[in-house]
Amino acid sequence: MHNLNIITRKADRKPCRIFGKVRYLNKEVDARILDMSVTGMAVEIRAPLHAASGSRVQILTEDVGTLHGIIRWCHNGRLGIQFDPNSNARAQVASYFRFFHKEVRPTLSR
Fold first, then answer.
1. How far apart are CA 15 and CA 104, in angstroms?
2. Structural domain includes residue 20
3. Which residue range is the domain that position 75 belongs to?
4. Can you say whether the dihedral through the CA atoms of 24, 36, 85, 82 is positive or negative?
5. Is 60 inside a domain boundary?
6. What is the pTM of this model?
7. Does residue 81 form part of some domain?
8. Which residue of 3, 39, 54, 100 is surrounded by the most CB atoms within 10 Å?
9. What is the CATH number of the domain that holds 94?
């Protein structure tokens, strides 16, 4: 098995289905947040985004607002993003989970 050197989050993740955009420099791509914790998120992007690990990005959503983060890993159209500790992201995500989040259930059963 391949070691992708992906650093995993220690905080509890919650599955999500939030649509938005990821902005890197002057490029925006459509995205879907797959899961989120108070420290970061996993995002599926719909088009290539030529940003390396360590790049600063913005995640724009109607549900949570604008979040600032740093790409920690990229693999097969997915990004691992750690929230910028200097931003208000932790409070925004905590508020989203407290007031708006609905539990996501799988759409297909096996």
1. 6
2. yes
3. 14-99
4. negative
5. yes
6. 0.77
7. yes
8. 39
9. 2.40.10.220
Structural contact between residues 74 and 82, judged by C-beta atoms closer than 8 angstroms: no
What are the distances in angstroms from CA 96 to CA 20, 38, 43, 58, 89? Answer: 15, 10, 17, 17, 10
Tokens of 23: 């902005």
Q: Give the tens place of pLDDT for each residue, 28-44.
A: 999 999 999 989 999 99
Q: What is the DSSP string of the chain?
A: -----PPPPSSPPEEEEEEEEEEETTEEEEEEEEEE-SSEEEEEESS-----TT-EEEEEETTTEEEEEEEEEEETTEEEEEEPTTSSHHHHHHHHHHHT------SS--
**What total number of domains does the chain contain?**
1
Confidence of residue 105 (pLDDT cuts 50, 70, 90): low
CA distances from 73 to 42, 70, 78, 92, 110 (A): 9, 9, 8, 22, 30
- CA–CA dist 110, 67 (Å, integer): 35
> Cβ distance 21 to 32 under 8 Å?
no
Q: What's the chain's length in residues?
A: 110
In a domain, 63, yes or no: yes
